[in-house]
Design goal:
By secondary structure, the chain is of the alpha+beta class. The chain has a single domain, classed as Deoxyribonuclease I, Chain A, CATH 3.60.10.10. Helix content is 19%, strand content 25%. The protein contains six helices and 16 strands. Strands 3-4-2-1-16-15 form a six-stranded mixed β-sheet, covered by helices on one side. A six-stranded mixed β-sheet has the order 5-8-9-10-14-11. A two-stranded antiparallel ribbon has the order 6-7. Strand 1, helix 2 and strand 2 form a beta-alpha-beta unit.
């Protein structure tokens, strides 16, 4: 989520559409202003499933927005399908429908409850697609959210980091309650994928030190993997903006989070690249936040807080970057997937 405990309004008509049809309107894979809005006043038109221009190995990231089973314990946060297994299963189905559009070989997922939910996903809507589930339990005891990976490619090793970094200039430290890493060979390159989900609320100054500490923990892990001769991907919900590449709304961060993570190694030559820069500014959004709670997607409510950062060895193999805007964020998840296609060898 882009805001802690700030969830979109429960619009009765929209939820009825979701639970009766388990579907969503479709229009184009970019943010063309010629598409048909999904509700009166929307500036966003849901796009049709993406048509990828190139073949290769695809890696994606998606915040699933509380992909839970609807059974106790569901954590302390509220969400529409909490304590409702039928509605929760419908949400799992809708997330699966989004994933099927991505044709991804590896997918980093945020806000997953547990491995059981992953099993429901791959043996339900994703049946027969060849995904194996990976989840390392995290330490977010409030929301009970975890990071997960689905992969068709063999993963050699998976884990998480419990390292902590200084919190500002004091003696306190802070870590990343929700993270996962996986080592594999991706597009012929030994690679470590680092999945992260940072503390929410990008413009909250009180949370700035915590998110900057999380970024430093990530940077250290990326530096370690680069030093071991592996390429690095850092992907997930950073809950923050890029200071070098502005998103659709032109948001500027109050932190150095993205700058810190991108400065992964000892020199400029090994800095990580944000694929946000590889699409037009109008397409640079991965999240909808209903600031005025009116149920309408207004200009300024679409932003990029999810990112995929690549080290040079993988950036050179990129053939296509796609921000997939093919679902209504009020009906499925308030985040959109990002897909990167790599030349296979």
């Amino acid at each position: 989520m882009s805001r802690l405990l700030s969830f979109r309004p429960r619009i009765t008509l929209l939820l009825l559409l979701v639970f009766s049809a388990s579907g969503y309107a479709c229009s184009s894979s970019t943010t063309s202003t010629t598409g048909t809005p999904t509700a009166t006043g929307d500036v966003f038109a849901v796009q049709p499933p993406p048509t990828f221009r190139t073949q290769g190995v695809r890696m994606a990231v998606l915040n699933t927005e509380f992909m839970f089973d609807g059974e106790d314990p569901d954590g302390a946060a509220d969400f529409p399908w909490k304590a409702n297994p039928t509605a929760a299963n419908a949400h799992i189905q809708r997330i699966g429908d989004v994933i099927k559009m991505l044709h991804a070989d590896v997918i980093v997922l945020e806000e997953v409850e547990n491995r059981t939910v992953l099993e429901r996903l791959i043996h339900g809507p994703l049946e027969g697609m060849g995904y194996l589930p990976y989840l390392v339990p995290g330490k977010d005891t409030f929301t009970r959210q975890n990071m997960a990976i689905l992969s068709k490619i063999p993963i050699d090793e998976v884990g998480r980091t419990d390292e902590r970094a200084p919190l500002g200039s004091g003696n306190d430290t802070y870590g990343i309650s929700k993270n996962i890493w996986a080592r594999l060979t991706l597009a012929g390159v030994p690679t470590t994928i680092i999945g992260v989900h940072y503390l929410a609320i990008p413009d909250n100054a009180e949370r700035k030190p915590q998110r900057e500490a999380q970024a430093e923990v990530t940077r250290r892990l990326a530096e370690q993997e680069l030093a071991a001769g592996r390429a690095v991907i850092v992907a997930g919900d950073f809950n923050d903006f890029d200071d070098q590449t502005l998103d659709r709304r032109g948001n500027r961060p109050i932190t150095n989070v993205l700058a810190t993570v991108k400065r992964a190694g000892p020199g400029d030559a090994d800095d990580l690249h944000n694929v946000l820069a590889d699409v037009p500014q109008a397409e640079r959004f991965s999240n909808f936040y209903d600031r005025n709670n009116n149920g309408i997607i207004n200009e300024g409510e679409l932003s990029a807080i999810d990112h995929i950062l690549l080290s040079p060895a993988l950036r050179r193999k990129v053939t296509e970057v796609t921000y997939v805007h093919s679902h209504d964020p009020r009906l499925v998840t308030d985040h959109f997937p990002i897909v990167v296609t790599f030349r296979p060898n």
